Amino acid sequence: MSELRSRAEDQQKIYQRWAPVYDRVYRGILRDGHRKLAALAAAAGTDILEIGVGTGLTLGHYPRHCRVTGIDISEHMIARAREKAKRENLEHVQALEVMDAHALTFADRSFDAVCLPFVITLIPEPERALDECARVLRPGGEIILASKLGDGAGLQGAIETAVAPLVRHIGWSSAFRIHRIVAWAERRGDFAAADILPVFPNGFFKIIRLKQRGLAG
Ligand SMILES: C[S@@+](CC[C@H](N)C(=O)[O-])C[C@H]1O[C@@H](n2cnc3c(N)ncnc32)[C@H](O)[C@@H]1O
């Protein structure tokens, strides 16, 4: 089995366990990130793709004039998101599908914004996933990420690196570095890191906005 397939199956098993309790654990702590990310996406346009939508905690934060599509690799998390969309009458949610961020099935230039709330650090080949986000984005659109995005500096960086192999088993990633996203944008040349915003609690999480330069054609 390929490394990518095996990592995908690990994520599916981990989030099958998380699905029934996820909202109770994460709703409060991630709310500020979800709210800010949804507002930034809506400011970029109406057609929004959310990668790693999970149980759909962000969905209710998008304004109702938006058209939101969510994907996730875990069928158990997507099932919760579908229940939530129905129960809360989230009519702006167009589709919720099981899909891997490394291989999106959407046509090129389908969305004004692509959001990745608390997922990029868990994706085995984040640059490949970001290339997919770029492909489905319209010129001038934005990729908006929220996560624990450390810079690796000092004692905190050393601890994050040391505990990474342990926390991986519960679906966390502590050693992902923000430079990786900035380097991806610089290498491509058609994206600029527009903003890095602190998120509750006290900047522990961050949002980074990558703006497509809107080349013609
Ligand atoms: C920490 S949860 C975040 C869920 C949601 N975005 C939120 O903020 O509450 C990470 C989610 O990413 C999903 N995920 C992990 N790897 C993925 C991949 N390669 N493609 C799509 N989704 C993935 C997991 O199944 C899980 O639902």
From TrEMBL:
GO terms for molecular function: phosphatidyl-N-methylethanolamine N-methyltransferase activity; phosphatidylethanolamine N-methyltransferase activity. SUPFAM superfamilies: S-adenosyl-L-methionine-dependent methyltransferases. Transmembrane segments: none annotated. Pfam families: Methyltransf_11 (PF08241). InterPro entries: Methyltransf_11, Methyltransf_Superfamily, SAM-dependent_MTases_sf. Residues 49-145 form the Methyltransferase type domain. Its EC number is 2.1.1.17, 2.1.1.71. It comes from the Bacteria. Keywords: Methyltransferase, Transferase. CDD domains: AdoMet_MTases. It is an enzyme of class 2 (transferase). GO terms for biological process: methylation. This is Class I SAM-dependent methyltransferase.
